[in-house]
Structures are given as structure tokens and as C-alpha cells.
Amino acid sequence: MIAFRPVFLATALLLVPLVAKAQGGSALRDRLHVVSSGSSHAVSEALVEAFTHRYSNVVPPRLEITGSAAALEQFCAGVGVDTPDLAITSRRITRTMADTCAANGVTDIVEVELGLGALVIAMRSGEGMPNLTDRQIYSALAAEYAAENEFRPNTLSTWSQISMSLPALPIRAVIPDRRSGTRALFNDFILQGGCRYVKAVRLIFSAAFRVAKCITLRDDGRIRQLASEAVPGALMESPAGTIGVISYAQLLESGGNLVPVALNGVLPTAASIANDDYDVVRTIYLYAKRQHSRNAQGVGVVRGIRDFTADAVSEAAGGPGGLLTQHGLVPLAPVARAQQREIAARQTLLNR
Amino acid sequence: MTHRFILAALLVFAVMAPLGSLARAQNAAPSAQVPLQDLPVIETRTEQLLRWFSDLKDSVGLGRRALSIARSHGDNARTDDFNWLMGIAGFKMKNIESTLGLLPGLTLEFGQARELSEADREYLERALRRHARRQPGPISALQRIIISGILEANEIQGFNVEKLTVTLLPLPYVKFTIAPSDAPLGPEASRVLQAIERLNQRLR
Which of A94, A201, B107, B160 gives B167 a disulfide partner, CB atoms 3.0 to 4.6 angstroms apart? Predict the structure, then answer.
């Protein structure tokens, strides 16, 4: 059964134009449309490549790289050939976004977890930064700091001004720009985490105003904001004392040229990420639009959604030593992996 | 008759066996290095009740033990207590009503201190997961249910949890006060707004 499944799918996809013609020219698509966040592009590319390799007779899926929020917005835009079938993101769909989806008619969503990724604070190999806390990073990089009853511009120039345990090197950072999912995680986990217990910020009632105070960065030339994929290269060329914000996958790709800095006392390792000990861990999600699959009446937008989802959560992809671990993902616990396989097989709908 | 004798013998053995092992343990005491242990304290009913009341206060972060931990950590206290979880859920304790009597009473009132951002919500969900792993007891589970209830209630479009009243004694219950997000201002808030408006006019 498994042996001829790819052949069956391939035949079905080749027949799609004929079916479309038979249905009075209804515009069925001949390929999957996948949108992905920039931070999980390596994972998305690997999955698309594996799918293309496995079903060699079908038209390769169309992969579009964008930000996590933009990917989900596109995914939730509606049902039909012009909208994506699958979304791979580093952020879970929020209830608000799920409501938007429902308002646009996207009601049948399947959510599976692919694995765990992490955001890493890195430095060049050989440079010493013992440990950083989210509060210290916020203090170093935020545009303003709270002094008595007002916020004043941040004028700190060296790490040692924040804490005596830190080196007397100039504060510099290379971080991903706003289009990146890694940047969104940096804002949410480290900058907002760092200012969460600052009394003056804590007193602000409005979430929007408080978040703006936390994530607005200084613009005195100490912070370089680049495309996510350009950060490791720029970090390698930066002066001593520069920290970089990269993904765990990028850290592994650096081949030891970049080293992680312990964050809140925990180093990012496969074990600390899997155990939920490391603070800046994210789950990579795959969302599938079940309404685009063919229904019992043979009507649908595209074929292959279920197969793509099942392949993505298979042991060969997400298990230990699997395809996705080669791209920096840490496997989920065995029980969780089994649950994801069941969701993919049954195409269980998301209930948020 | 024989059965009765066997049963009686088993019963005696069951009672005497632990005593025998205790005697062996006492004989072996000089070489076994058994740590010193306190004798069990004989408590009166009142003392038991007060201790239980104190433990209950501790469990919600109001007892001496919890307060001393919070003080020693200053603002960064990340003690896994109810107060801390309520803090990250955006609620602050407004008052405590504590009564001692035949039926002691304890009521805590929390008011919304901040709106939650998406990141705060994610952080809180994670804190609850970690709390569940570290503190699986029934009281901790109840605390998590309350916090999750706030998160769920705040998901209702156009409504906010304005106030939360947790009554622990004599009968435990939780009261959520949910109000529309665009509810008309109360007289006090209206007066403050009018004062700001007057100040603005004067400055112009």
C-alpha cells in the first residue's frame, strides 16, 4: 500500500487539469502553495525538497518565504486557488488570528508541531561573555531607561556599565530586521522579558504603550539590523563585544565559528531546548487548510496536503537524526511526536 | 477453630513484625547513623485549625514564609506562588479580608493592573506549564485553573475581567467580574478626565 502511494498521488495530480476541465473549467491548482516564515525557511525548504523528491512526477510545490505574521495573514486570507494551502511558522496561530481566519471562511485548519527551534545570543568564537540575562540585554539595547519618574535616553556604552561581571567592551549588536520571525521572538522573549519586571514599565496599563517602551531600540549606531540570513556573516566581521541574535539552526550552520552565550544561566543545547529549560524556545508549526483538500464529492483546490503534512511529522523528518534535525530543529518528545502523527493522519481540526 | 488460631497468629505477627524490626533498628542504631528527628508535636484542635489556616495563606503567597521569600527577592521575586502568577496575568491584589472566629474567613480581591500583550500571554502560558511540572498538588492545580480562567475570560471579544475575588474560607469559591471593554466611565474616572481637560484648556 505504502509502496504505490506516491505513484497514486502523482497520477492524481497529473489528472487534476482533466478533472478541472470536467468540472466546467473550475480552476484547480496543480501544485501545493506553501508560505513560510523567514526564520523557518530552512525547515520549509527541506520539507518541500523532500516532498518533491518523493513524488517525483508531480509539479514541485510553490514555496513563498515571508514573516510569520505575514504567512499566517496570507493563510487566513480566504479559501480558494489564490490562497496558500500550507503555512510553516515559528509562532502559533493566535486566537485573534484564528478568529480572522474564521471570518474569512478558513474554518478547517489542521495544526501540527514539527519540532523545537531556539533563538540564540551568539558571539564570535574566542570572545568571552560569561552569561547574559534578558534584563541586561534590554538595558543595553533599549532606546530608553527608566530613571525615577521618567524615561531617559539610553547612553550606556560598555557592557561593564550594566554589570561588573560583564566585559569592558563596547555595547554592539547585530540583530535581524523586522521582517524576520527571529526578530519577533527577540522582541517577545528577550526585550519584553527583560522589561517585564522593570517597575516603571510594569505600571503602564496599556499593552501597546508598554510593548513600545520595551521593544524600541536605540538608534545611535550600536545596533545593526539586517536580514535574518545576513546576521551570522555580519557578526563574524564585527568588532569585539558584539552580540548577534541568530537561530539555533544558524548556530549549528556556523560550524563552531559562532558560540552561544548562556541566557539567564542556561546554554542553548539540544537537551536544554527539549527539556524546556532554555527560555527562548519556540515550536515550529505547520498549518494545513483542510478545506483545500478534495472532499467526498471530489471537489477541492489541490491534492497532496495530507501527504505533505504526514511526511513533515514522520519519524524520518522530525525524529532523532531526522531530516529536520539537520536543519537545527530539536525533536519533540516521543509521545508528542506520536500525537502529531495521529493529528496528521486523521487531519484533526484545530480547536482554539 | 484452627482457622481462628491461624488468623490470630497472623494478626499478632503483623502487629509485632514492625516492632521487631524497630527493635533491630534500635540495636543497630550506633553504627547506622540515623539522623536526629523531632518528636511529633501534639496539637490542640485550635492549633491545628490555625496551622491549616496559615498553610492556606502560605499557599496563596500571603503567609510569613511566602512574604519573606518575596521580600528577599525584591521586585524580581519569581516565587511560584499564586500572587506571582496573578502578577504576570496582569492582576494586582487590592485587598485582603481576613476574619478569625468560629468560622474563619479569608477573601482576596484582585484588580486588573495591566493589559496583557501577546508575549505576556505566551509567557504566562509557559509559566503555567512549568508550574504544573514543579507543583502538581491539588492547591497548585486550583491556582492554575483560576489563572487559566482569567486568560479564557479575557478572550471573550469586547469583555475584560475587571475584578477577581478569591474566597478561601469558610467555603472556597472564585468570583469573576467581567465588564465590557468600552463600558462607560465611573464617576471617579469621569472627574479625573474632566480635571485633565480643564488643565489642558488652561495650558492652551
Answer: B107
Using an 8 Å CB-CB cutoff, list chain A residues near B126: 276
Per-residue model confidence as pLDDT tens for chain A (352 residues): 334 444 444 444 444 444 444 444 344 788 999 999 876 788 899 999 999 999 988 899 999 988 777 888 899 999 988 999 999 987 788 777 888 899 999 999 999 999 998 899 999 988 878 899 999 999 999 999 988 778 999 999 999 999 999 999 999 999 998 777 678 789 989 999 999 989 899 889 988 899 999 999 999 999 999 988 899 999 999 999 899 999 888 898 888 999 999 999 999 998 898 888 898 888 899 999 999 987 767 678 888 999 999 999 999 999 988 888 877 788 898 999 999 999 999 999 988 6
Write phi, then psi, for A290 (nearest 5 degrees). -70, -25
Please give the CATH architecture assigned to the domain spanning A118-281: 3-Layer(aba) Sandwich (3.40)
Contact B129 A196 (CB under 8 A): no
Domain tally, chain B: 1
Q: Is position B8 within any domain?
A: no
Cα A94 to Cα A344: distance, rounded to the nearest angstrom = 20
* Nearest-Cα residue of chain A relative to residue B76: A197
Q: Where in chain A is the domain with CATH 3.40.190.10?
A: 5-117+283-346, 118-281
Angle at A167 between CA B72 and CA B74, to 5 degrees: 10
What fold is seen in the domain A5-117+283-346?
Answer: D-Maltodextrin-Binding Protein; domain 2 (3.40.190)
Report the alpha-carbon distance of residue B22 to residue B16 in Å, rounded.
Answer: 10
What is the pTM (predicted TM-score) of this model?
0.67
Judge whether A196 is closer than 8 Å to chain B, CB to CB: yes
Best mutation site among A96, A163, A183, A202 for testing chain B: the one with the most B CBs within 10 Å? A202
B7 domain residue, yes or no: no
> Is A197's Cβ below 8 Å from some Cβ in B?
yes
Is B127 part of a structural domain of the chain? Answer: yes
What is the predicted ipTM?
0.70
* Residue reference for cell 496528521: A344
Q: Where are the alpha helices (DSSP H) in B28-117?
A: 29-32, 45-59, 64-73, 82-88
Long-range contacts of A23-31 (CB under 8 A, 24+ apart): A23/A299, A27/A81, A28/A81, A28/A300, A28/A301, A28/A302, A29/A81, A29/A301, A29/A302, A30/A59, A30/A302, A31/A58, A31/A59, A31/A60, A31/A61, A31/A62, A31/A302
The verdict on a CB contact (< 8 Å) between A211 and B117 is yes
